[in-house]
């Protein structure tokens, strides 16, 4: 393999599809692991963490998140420039950019594809001397002896064009692909729902006919203007659509790839788009054995993106901008090995055979210690090895929800509201984070995680119903205050003042193992502080989902991870028309407040700025007052990397950050040798013991032989 020298990489003559490339400790190869077997690698369907790890390196959507800028900033990726957005009223007349959302009947996004971008080498794109596709109309028996893509004699490429984006958007509507964002896009892209109905009505049985149907079908929401320009039309105003353009769902798809894999005999040989994706990204999947390892290798046709030349204050001093302007990617090859258990993965990282690692609960004490101020630090052992710790608060919230349709704990009455606030004080989330998360979390004060517009830090951001601000930090209110709220709610000492009965509440749990039992016991104790008996109703996940869907659950834990870094993507979890029972939406607690809903409708279509911040502040104040959630926590991601691993910078929204990483393979090889020297003294000791046992026997045998001779 070639090595990185002064930012330039000299390619060797190894064929791109070699399934077993040379693998030495000094190669420019990154080593990592994965614990969950990816099921498919089709961007129309993929949404699990492991699948996105691979998909984001292979496929390129129109936009991406800037690697270094915070708050998160969208920049072009497959496009030559940011999309041009125009607004129109119901009569088709153009509107100014600051037109009120109510006046906007449709929004038009014009995408300008970067010319010269080419797909990775692939047999689907190979052509013969006359320019006709070589492998798209194979005769029966032509696949004899073909087991992998590498068995095809020729591989071709072609330029990325606007029609490839249009084809992929139509794939999102295809009923046979079951895309998870089909419902969302049906609400926004003009004619998208009708397209899905047309495709379903005409759904042919043969895969090749489906490709032709998608290619030939047109709809009003997507129009190819010319080779490099595409227009997407939305109903009304939906500014969050730009974030969707940064997701793999909108990565371009060449129709030839689907036509290639749709041919008879391909699926039987495991030759599928799920197995061998086709993209324009910095890497391509050259070995796919999810039960053993998966290998990404540099795409020789990559369009030549460069490392960012600007970042946040302090980035230059920290060395994060040392590679500014250098061509990407830095790493030639990435090997992911399947590790089903955490201990082998951890030991291999310590030995230097994995370049970076997460931290499992079992290994946490070996890796991290907490100083007197609560700040996480590496253990002395890892510090001595030059290992670095990287932490980042994830754009995620876990919360305990109160079903607002429940007659005891729910509703907008003052009695239930005071009861919810008392429980919010009693359930000590700081203790939960310390015990069950090894401190890897930040207590939530509102639905908005740090880094999302609208989040308030410091004293201005605390939930005043649960915390006070003392000595420069948030301090949880006392149990005495919680018990006072219980009295005001009519439950002194946890008993109903009217009936004299002890207050009993139900917690809906999906519990299967000993760790769950410990958490549930802890939770019972939190409610017992107020004299409340908490009944744990354990069930399987499907039954749990039914309870939430039907509104028969009472209290439960729930979580949400950001699809995109916008406050709308969190606050909509409390928007009345998104109620789970009535509207089958993501408002799992069925909370509704008319003022909150009105403010949400104004806020969601505004650009970030003082007006939007003021609306968010008021919405958060309303939600804190009503307390439909115990706000829970935002998880903090901890990861470790060796000293030869560079440009380790947390970006919790982007999945395509592998291209920015750089390694020093020579230093890695040197340290691996130093850390893994063979220990020979046990062998020497064993030999000595063996000799000590054998010598007396040998002496006795010799003595007996001499006596016989005499």
TrEMBL record:
The record's Pfam families line, in alphabetical order, gives: SBP_bac_5 (PF00496)
RNA-binding as UniProt keyword: no
Q: Which domain of life is it from?
A: Bacteria
What are the Solute-binding protein family domain coordinates in residue numbering?
159-579
Check the record and name the InterPro entries matching this protein: SBP_5, SBP_5_dom
Sorted alphabetically, the keyword list is: Membrane, Transmembrane, Transmembrane helix
Entry-linked Gene3D superfamilies: Dipeptide-binding Protein, Domain 3 (3.10.105.10), Periplasmic binding protein-like II (3.40.190.10)
Q: Which residue ranges run through the membrane?
A: 679-701
Database matches in PANTHER family: PERIPLASMIC BINDING COMPONENT OF ABC TRANSPORTER (PTHR30290)
In its UniProt entry, what is this protein called? Peptide ABC transporter substrate-binding protein
Which species does the entry assign this protein to? Answer: Marichromatium gracile
């Amino acid at each position: 393999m070639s090595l990185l020298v002064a930012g330039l990489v000299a390619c060797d003559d190894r064929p791109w599809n070699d399934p077993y490339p040379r693998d030495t400790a000094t190669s420019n190869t990154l080593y990592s692991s994965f614990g969950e077997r990816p099921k498919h690698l089709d961007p129309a369907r993929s949404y699990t963490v492991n699948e996105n790890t691979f998909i984001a390196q292979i496929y390129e959507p129109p936009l991406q998140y800037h690697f270094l800028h915070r708050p998160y900033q969208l920049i072009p990726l497959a496009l030559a420039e940011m999309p041009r957005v125009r607004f129109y009223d119901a009569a088709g007349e153009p509107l100014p950019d600051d037109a009120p959302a109510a006046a906007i009947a449709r929004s038009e996004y014009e995408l300008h594809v970067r010319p010269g971008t080419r797909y990775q080498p692939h047999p689907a794109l190979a052509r013969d001397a006359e320019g006709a596709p070589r492998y798209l109309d194979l005769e029966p028996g032509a696949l004899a002896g073909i087991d992998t893509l590498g068995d095809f004699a020729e591989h071709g490429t072609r330029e990325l064009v606007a029609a490839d984006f249009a084809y992929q958007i139509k794939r999102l509507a295809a009923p046979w692909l079951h895309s998870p964002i089909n419902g969302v896009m049906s609400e926004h892209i003009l004619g998208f729902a009708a397209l899905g109905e047309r495709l379903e009505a005409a759904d042919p049985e043969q895969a090749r006919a489906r490709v032709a149907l998608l290619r030939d079908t047109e709809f009003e929401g997507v129009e190819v203007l010319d080779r490099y320009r595409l227009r997407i039309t939305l109903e009304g105003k939906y500014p969050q659509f730009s974030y969707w353009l940064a997701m793999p769902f909108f990565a371009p798809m060449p129709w030839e790839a689907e036509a290639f894999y749709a041919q008879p005999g391909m699926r039987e040989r495991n030759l599928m788009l799920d197995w061998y994706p086709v993209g324009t990204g910095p890497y391509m999947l050259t070995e796919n054995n999810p039960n053993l390892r998966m290998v990404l290798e540099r795409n020789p046709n990559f369009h030549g993106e460069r490392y960012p030349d600007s970042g946040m204050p302090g980035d230059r001093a920290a060395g994060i901008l040392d590679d500014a302007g250098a061509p990407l990617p830095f790493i030639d090859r990435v090997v992911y090995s399947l590790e089903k258990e955490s201990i082998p993965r951890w030991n291999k990282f310590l030995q230097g055979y994995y370049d970076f690692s997460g931290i499992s609960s079992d290994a946490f004490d070996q890796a991290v210690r907490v100083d007197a101020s609560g700040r996480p630090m590496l253990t002395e052992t890892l510090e001595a090895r030059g290992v670095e710790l990287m932490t980042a608060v994830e754009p995620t919230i876990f919360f305990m929800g109160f079903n607002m349709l429940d007659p005891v704990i729910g509703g907008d009455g003052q009695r239930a509201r005071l009861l919810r606030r008392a429980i919010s004080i009693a359930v000590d989330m700081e203790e939960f984070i310390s015990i069950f998360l090894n401190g890897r979390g930040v207590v939530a004060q509102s639905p908005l995680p740090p880094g999302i517009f609208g989040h308030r830090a410091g004293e201005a951001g605390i939930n005043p119903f649960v915390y006070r601000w003392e000595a420069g930090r948030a301090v949880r209110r006392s149990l005495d205050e919680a018990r006072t709220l219980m009295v005001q709610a009519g439950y002194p000492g946890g008993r109903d003042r009217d009936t004299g009965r002890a207050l009993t509440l139900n917690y809906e749990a999906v519990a299967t193992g000993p760790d769950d039992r410990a958490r549930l016991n802890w939770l019972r104790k939190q409610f017992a502080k107020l004299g409340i008996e908490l009944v744990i109703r354990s069930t399987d996940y499907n039954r749990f989902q039914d309870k939430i869907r039907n509104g028969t659950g009472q209290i439960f834990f729930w979580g949400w991870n950001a699809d995109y870094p916008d406050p709308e993507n969190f606050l909509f979890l409390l928007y009345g028309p998104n109620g789970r029972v009535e509207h089958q939406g993501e408002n799992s607690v069925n909370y509704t407040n008319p003022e909150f809903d009105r403010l949400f409708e104004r806020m969601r279509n505004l650009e970030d700025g003082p007006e939007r911040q003021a609306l968010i502040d008021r919405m958060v104040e309303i939600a804190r007052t009503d307390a439909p959630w115990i706000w829970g926590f935002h998880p903090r991601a901890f990861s470790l990397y060796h000293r030869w691993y560079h440009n380790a910078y947390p970006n919790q929204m982007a999945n395509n950050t592998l291209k920015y990483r750089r390694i020093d393979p020579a230093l890695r090889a040197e340290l691996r040798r130093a850390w893994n020297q063979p220990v020979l003294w046990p062998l020497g000791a064993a030999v000595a013991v063996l000799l000590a046992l054998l010598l007396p026997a040998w002496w006795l045998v010799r003595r007996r032989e001499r006596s016989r001779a005499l």
